[in-house]
Each structure stands twice: as structure tokens, then as C-alpha cells.
Write a structure and sequence with these properties.
alpha/beta, single chain, elongated, 293 residues
Length: 293
């Protein structure tokens, strides 16, 4: 081990679309930064900015006590951590490995158990906010791991994030990210359905996009209703009951009108029909009510 393996020295593996802007936010970290990527052209700007480069994860682990990993998938994470030139080949006891890639929660749990055999702490710490959020230091990080490890990573993670949520033990960070992305990509699918309806109605769908982005910036989009701490049915005496019932009535009216318009235009709207049937139950205020016009 080299003498510069001091607590708080950072390592970053994977300098792609997400990793590069995250790592750039760490260049001024007082303990120093060591970076590693299979592409020399990705590493060069960091070296020119004062970072140390490492030819392999194993070499990087000789010079870092907190190591961030942002690669593509489970296979790459396994190779970076467990491979012949992986982190565990050289990592000192007490090292923290934080994986920001979205992987299987079971992979995270398996890696945590293997790391523990080396007295190395593993965190699954996926992020949300994309490259723009990373560039601004405005990512959300969902951490699965111990309280002690969380305390050690809060300050460096604060360089690229402004929200750190302790989701629970290892695996919980990934499960939270999957739930968050479920909303993200179902919403994308719903957006494509809305575009088909608007296009069939002869509307400018780029103008529709402007309206959606404008109003979501004001209302908060789907996150605006994610304020309760349970998905159980809402008691009629609960503060939320009249609010969510109002949301339900508005939603059922507008979704019904959209379904009717789609039917007239010959445009199937399967997600809309599903949402019409599930909105009230999902909000916790009961199933759809058919109302006469």
C-alpha cells in the first residue's frame, strides 16, 4: 500500500455519460481523486485537471478508501469488484465501494457479502437526475448500506448530489431506484400515448410537449401526490381523503373524455383505459364510479 491511502481519498471507476460529470464534481476533493476507465481519452481530461489515473480497479483501490463505480450493468460491476484486476484484489479493510449503476438488488446483496469477507463495505447507491443533474451537483442518491458507511460518504457524495436518502440495508437503494424508474418509464409510455391521441386529433404535438413541461414544472407532475407514508386505503376522516377524492374525480372525468375522444378517432388508448380503472384504487379512495353525463 502506498502512503497516500489516507481516509477520504476518493476513487472513481467509469467515466461515461453519468460517471464523467459526477467525477468532475470531485476534482477539488481535499483528499484527492484517482480515476479509472478503459478508454484513455476519457481519463485524459481528469489527469490534466489534477487527478491521478489508475490502469485497473485493483491499482485504483491501492490509492482510495472510498470508491465510486459507475459502469453499465451487473456483469461490468462484478468484473470491476471481483475480477482478477478488481477492487477486492487490493482493497484495504475499511474501504467503501459505492456502486451508482442500476443493477439487480440480488447482485448488490451478493457483492456485499463477498466484500464483507475482505472487511470492505459495499453500498448500492444508484442515482437519479441524469447527466444534467450530475453536472449541476443536483443528483438524488438512494443508498443501501450501513449507517457508518453512510456517514462516511455523505460529504463526498454531496459534491454531486443535493439529496441523499438512506433507503435501508444493502439492496434497498436499488429497489428504490427501480420503483422510481418504473414511474419514469411508464410515464414515458403514457406520453407516447398522449402524443398519438393529439396527433390523431390534428394537433401540434411539439406544442403539447411545451404545455406538459410547463405545467409539470409548476405542479410537480406525478410526484405531487407522493406525500403519504402508506398505500393503504384512506380513512374518510383523514386529511388526505377530500384532497385525493377531488383528484380522483378530476382524473376520472378527464380520462373518460380522453377515452371517448380516442374511440371517435380510432386511436386505441390502453394505458388510459387502465388508468381510468385504477386511479381511484391507487389513490386509496375507491374504485372508479360510472357517472351519468
Amino acid at each position: 500500500m502506498t502512503t497516500d491511502t489516507a481516509p477520504g481519498r476518493l476513487g472513481f471507476i467509469g467515466l461515461g455519460n453519468m460517471g464523467a460529470p459526477m467525477a468532475r464534481r470531485l476534482l477539488e476533493w481535499p483528499g484527492g481523486l484517482t480515476v479509472c476507465d478503459v478508454r484513455p481519452d476519457a481519463v485524459l481530461p481528469f489527469v490534466e485537471a489534477g487527478a491521478r489515473s489508475a490502469p485497473s480497479p485493483a491499482d485504483l483501490a491501492r490509492h482510495a478508501s472510498i470508491i465510486c463505480v459507475t459502469v453499465i450493468d451487473d456483469a461490468q460491476v462484478n468484473e470491476v469488484v471481483l475480477g482478477p484486476e478488481g477492487i477486492l484484489a487490493t482493497a484495504a479493510p475499511g474501504t467503501i465501494i459505492a456502486v451508482h449503476s442500476t443493477i439487480s438488488d440480488r447482485t448488490a446483496e451478493t457483492l456485499a457479502a463477498l466484500c464483507a469477507e475482505h472487511e470492505v463495505e459495499f453500498l448500492d447507491a444508484p442515482v437519479s437526475g441524469g447527466a444534467p443533474g450530475a453536472t449541476r451537483g443536483a443528483l438524488a442518491v438512494m443508498v443501501g448500506g450501513s449507517n457508518d458507511a453512510l456517514a462516511r460518504i455523505r460529504e463526498p457524495f454531496g459534491c454531486f448530489s443535493d439529496l441523499i436518502v438512506h433507503a435501508g440495508p444493502v439492496g434497498a437503494g436499488t429497489r428504490m431506484k427501480l420503483a422510481r424508474n418504473l414511474l419514469h418509464f411508464i410515464a414515458f409510455t403514457a406520453a407516447t400515448e398522449a402524443q398519438r391521441l393529439a396527433e390523431a386529433a390534428g394537433l401540434d404535438i411539439t406544442a403539447l410537449g411545451k404545455v406538459v413541461r410547463h405545467s409539470d414544472a409548476v405542479t410537480g407532475g406525478p410526484g405531487a401526490i407522493m406525500l403519504r407514508d402508506t398505500t393503504a386505503p384512506v380513512d374518510p376522516a383523514d386529511f388526505w381523503h377530500p384532497i385525493l377524492t377531488h383528484v380522483r374525480h378530476l382524473g376520472e372525468k378527464d380520462l373518460s373524455l380522453a377515452v371517448e375522444l380516442g374511440s371517435r378517432l380510432g386511436t386505441p388508448l390502453p394505458l388510459t383505459e387502465l388508468a381510468l380503472g385504477e386511479l381511484g384504487r391507487g389513490l386509496g379512495v375507491g374504485a372508479v364510479e360510472q357517472q351519468s353525463s
